[in-house]
Amino acid sequence: MNERTISTQSWGLLTLLALIWGASFLSIRIALDEVPPLTAVAHRVGWATLVLWVYVLVRKLPLPRGPHIWIGFLGMGLLNNVIPFSLMAWGQLYIPSGLTSIFNATTAVFGVLVAAIFLSDERLSPRKAVGIAVGFAGVTTAIGLQNLRDFDITSLAQLAVLAGTLSYALAGVWARKRLSGLEPQVAAAGMLTASALMMIPLAWIVDGPIRLDLQPRTIAAIAYYAICATALAYLLYYKVLSLAGSGNLMLVTLLVAPVAILLGALVLGETLSPNAYKGFALLALGLVIIDGRLIDRLHRAR
C-alpha cells in the first residue's frame, strides 16, 4: 500500500465514518425486534437507493448505460449488499452487535487474500501472509474453541457473519473487474438499485408484504441505517478514499468495532466474552501487519 500522511481533515472524516458505521450495528439490531432480517435489508437498500439517485440527478452525473454495466451492478449488488447484509442481519439475531462488528473487521483480511487469488497485480507477500494468519487466529479466538466443538445456532450465526465478510471481499474483486471507470457515486447508486430489485421481491416472498406501519423506534432505526449508514456513508467513504487513500481507509475497520461494542453495551446491555476482545486484538494486529507501514517506521526508527 502506498503510504500517505493523514491530514486533520482526513482523521475527522475517518472518525465520523467509523461512528456512523459503528452505530449501524445497533440500529439494525433494534429494527430486528420488529421486522425480519430480509425485510430489514430490503428497507436498507430500497431507501438508500432513492437517496443516492437524488444525489446523482442533482449533481447531474453521467448515467450508466449498456447491459454490461448493469450486469456489473447485479453482481456487485449481490456480493456487496444482498448476501452480506442478509447474513449479518440474520446473525445479529443470535450474537451481540459488538461481536458482529468484530467479525466485520475480517473483511480487510479476506480482501487481501481474495485479491491475491483473483487479481494478478495483488501479490501475496510473506508479510501479508503472516498478517492473514494472525488475523484468522484472531477470528478463531473470538469464536472460541468451545463454540467450534459444540456447534449450535450461535456458532452458525458467527459463521454466517464471516461468510458475509467473505462476500464483501469478493465484491471488491468484482468491482475492479467490472465497474472500473465509473463515477463512484453512480456505481453505488447502480449497485443499490440492483440490490433493491433483488431484495424487495425476495423479502416479500419469504417474509410477506413489507410493512410501513412500524413502531417509531423501528422507523428511526431503519432511517438511520438506510439513509445515514448506507447512502450518506457511501458518499463519505469515497470522500475519505480520495483524501486519505485505501491504505488509511483500513483504519475505519479498526475504529468501527469499539464504537459498536460501546453502543451495544450502553443501549442493549450486551456483554462480550474475554475471548472476543482477545480475538479483536489479534485481528487488529493482523491488519497492522498487512498494512506494513507501522512495521516500516519501526525499522527506520532503529
Walk me through this protein's architecture:
The protein is 81% helix and 0% strand. It is mostly helical and 302 residues long. It contains 12 helices and no strands. The mean pLDDT is 89. The protein has one domain (8-301). The protein is globular. 45% of the residues are buried.
Descriptors for this entry?
0% strand; 302 residues; 12 helices; mainly alpha
Summarize the structure.
The chain is an all-alpha fold and about 300 residues long.
Could you report the average pLDDT, rounded to the nearest whole number? 89
Q: What is the global morphology?
A: globular
Radius of gyration, whole Å: 19 Å
Uncertain runs = none
Largest sheet: none
Number of helices: 12
Number of extended strands: 0
User: What is the CA–CA distance across the termini?
Assistant: 22 Å
| Helix proportion | over 70%
H/E topology pattern: HHHHHHHHHHHH
Instruction: Please identify the oligomeric state.
Output: single chain
Strand content: under 5%
Class inferred from helices and paired strands: mainly alpha
| Count of domain modules | 1
Topology:
Layout: H1 8-31, H2 37-59, H3 67-91, H4 97-104, H5 106-118, H6 126-143, H7 145-149, H8 153-178, H9 184-207, H10 216-268, H11 274-291, H12 293-301
Helix pairs in contact: 1-4, 1-10, 2-3, 2-9, 2-10, 3-8, 3-9, 4-10, 5-6, 5-8, 5-11, 6-11
